[in-house]
Design a protein that fits this description.
The structure holds 2 protein chains of 2 kinds. Chain A is built from 6 helices and 10 strands. Chain A is an alpha/beta fold. A 6-stranded mixed β-sheet of chain A has the order 6-7-8-3-9-10, sandwiched between helices. In chain A, strands 2-1-4-5 form a 4-stranded antiparallel β-sheet, covered by helices on one side. In chain A, strand 1 and strand 2 form a beta hairpin. Chain B is α+β, with helices and mostly antiparallel strands. Helix content of chain B is 70%, strand content 8%. A 4-stranded antiparallel β-sheet of chain B has the order 2-3-1-4. In chain B, helix 1 runs antiparallel to helix 6, helix 1 packs across helix 8 and helix 8 runs antiparallel to helix 10. Classes of the chains: A alpha/beta, B alpha+beta. At the A-B interface, helix 2 and helix 3 of A face helix 7 of B.
Chain lengths: 250, 294
């Protein structure tokens, strides 16, 4: 199904500079050891990145730093060209609206319908109700949930909830899309379909970073790059592993 | 920043009358309205007492001989009429004196051989009431058997009691306002804890603190409006009932302590004030709590 609605056509970021830049970043929860340490990398504007690594490597913590749910214990993070470590709290909402997030645990609002969950970022951004209907319906159709628009999350399967979470993350056509295991609960066909959605967004300029254990996904987006995290550190500081193996028929 | 509209109001689950807060606010408003009504009634009574008899003096001519008594009363009245600050001089008719004494002495007692003093009510300006020396001298010169009673003197303890009760009522109103605010703080904190997950999602979607606070503010305002109206209506019934019973007693003093008509305007405004207070307190509580989140 081609993406022909205008929600994808509103913003076109030119590729070029880094949209995210980490310098010597460390993250510590409480007084324990550092969960992330000495992270230094940058994400190119318009790039497509897979974040891999074993469980407990710190992938979700890294993503939380990216979608501004946490501030680092040390180091510098520049997002959209601005230092977000020292940024006043009052400016963060404006930055968060530029980021779409697919949470590992979906985090749907339980008392809202599928439609309202997907419409949430648009409503927060101030889109009028009359302008919501078309993009939300189209997005629900794209993720195969057109007939589940009025269903509550509790009545949806795990895969359906994941698709709602993905639809909610991309509906506002964010400049940065952060997805934590977005295809963990869907069948391979739906996984490919969702990845195609991410790919389409990326081609229109959205920088995408997907945390996953599924290395097969890497082959679905040939131009993607890989960041490997191990025990809280980038395992490939030189960037040698950033490019996935090419598919045999690529 | 655009406010959340009608559709966004569902972002927090409804069920506003289900919790205890509306009923707690109803009780608070009931007690607040009663305390305020008591304060306003007492203030009105104090003011009316002061207006009516606070600057009034009574001249008593205590003389056994009725002819001399009448002559001295007339002379005293004539002597003070021309004094500065005297607004009104009214010799109290014998029939009125008789009516005053009748409950104690029985009907027709003044026609017999019991002498009753001649009374003259004198209304003064507040300035003239402050220094009665000139008036006393004029009365003493004209009527040696006369004595001047300052009504304000024996009203002072009553006025003091009424003043104290008035301030007590005002204090109770303030305590109720404080307790209502504390209730709203607790309710807002409880609501924040209950909906913490939704708030975090809204924050991560880019919602500002003010947007989130508005959602809670609206819910709490509805709770406060419901509780305020219930409390006010119950209190109004009680006040009207008490007013009717006081009227039935026919006591001028008690009757003067009922809620005057203009004061009802203040009482009616209390629920609206309660809603505004609840919204303000909720907003400040929630903004403060949200400020501690990233």
């Amino acid at each position: 199904m081609p993406l022909q609605n205008d929600w994808l056509g509103r913003r076109f970021l030119g590729a070029g500079g880094s949209i995210v830049k980490f310098e010597n970043v460390g993250l510590r929860y409480g007084t324990g050891a550092e969960t992330l340490s000495d992270l230094a990398f940058s994400l190119r504007e318009g790039g497509f990145y897979f974040l891999t690594g074993p469980s407990g490597a710190g992938k979700t913590s890294l993503l939380k730093l990216l979608y501004l749910a946490l501030r680092p214990s040390r180091g510098l993070i520049r997002l959209f060209g601005e230092d977000i470590v020292t940024m006043p709290r009052g400016r963060l909402p404006g930055f968060r609206r530029r980021i779409g997030v697919v949470f590992q645990d979906f985090r749907l609002v339980p008392h809202l319908s599928t439609f309202d969950n997907v419409a949430l970022p648009l409503r927060v951004a101030g889109v009028e109700d009359k302008d919501l209907e078309t993009p939300v319906r189209e997005m629900l159709a794209w993720v195969g949930l057109a007939d589940r628009a009025s269903a509550r999350p509790a009545t949806l399967s795990g895969g359906e909830q994941q698709r709602v979470a993905i639809a909610r993350a991309v509906i506002g056509r964010p400049e940065l899309l952060v997805a934590d295991e977005p295809t963990g609960n869907v069948d391979p066909e739906m996984a490919r379909r969702l990845l195609y959605l991410f790919d389409s967004l990326n081609k229109l300029g959205t920088t995408v970073i997907v945390a996953t254990h599924d290395l097969h996904l890497l082959t679905e987006v040939p131009r993607s790059e890989m960041l490997r995290l191990d025990r809280g550190q980038i395992a490939d500081p030189t960037g040698a592993l950033r490019h996935p193996p090419k598919r045999p028929n690529a | 920043m655009r406010k959340f509209g009608a559709a966004e109001r569902g972002l927090l689950p409804e069920g506003r009358i289900a919790g205890p807060m509306p009923w707690v606010i109803a009780i608070m408003m009931f007690l607040t309205v009663l305390a305020a009504a008591a304060g306003l009634g007492l203030a009105g009574a104090a003011s009316r007492l002061d207006e009516q008899i606070g600057t009034r003096i009574t001249i008593q001519v205590v003389e056994a001989n009725p002819d001399v008594r009448r002559a001295q009363a007339a002379a005293a009245a004539a002597a003070i009429r021309s004094l500065p600050g005297v607004i009104n001089v009214r010799p109290v008719p014998d029939s009125e004196v008789q009516a005053l004494l009748e409950p104690w002495l029985g009907a027709g007692s003044l026609d017999s051989d019991i002498p009753a003093p001649a009374l003259i009510d004198v209304d003064l300006t507040p300035e003239a009431h402050r220094t009665l020396d000139g008036l006393r001298q004029a009365v003493a010169a004209a009527a040696p058997a006369a004595r001047v009673d300052d009504n304000g003197q024996w009203l002072a303890p009553l006025a003091s009691l009424i003043g104290a009760l008035k301030w007590l009522a005002a204090g109770l109103v303030l305590l109720m306002v404080g307790a209502t605010a504390a209730t709203v703080v607790l309710a807002a904190r409880a609501a924040l804890d209950t909906h913490r997950g939704t708030i975090e999602i809204l924050h991560l979607m880019g919602a500002t603190d003010v947007q989130v606070a508005r959602l809670f503010q609206r819910r709490i305002a509805l709770d406060a409006l419901f509780g305020g109206l219930v409390g006010f209506i119950l209190a109004a019934f009680v006040l009207i009932g008490i007013g009717n019973r006081v009227s039935a007693l026919g006591s001028e003093l008690l009757g003067s302590a009922t809620v005057p008509a203009p004061a009802w305007g203040i009482l009616v405004a209390l629920p609206a004030f309660g809603v505004l207070l609840a919204m303000l307190v909720a907003r400040l509580t929630i903004l403060r709590a949200l400020g501690r989140m990233l």
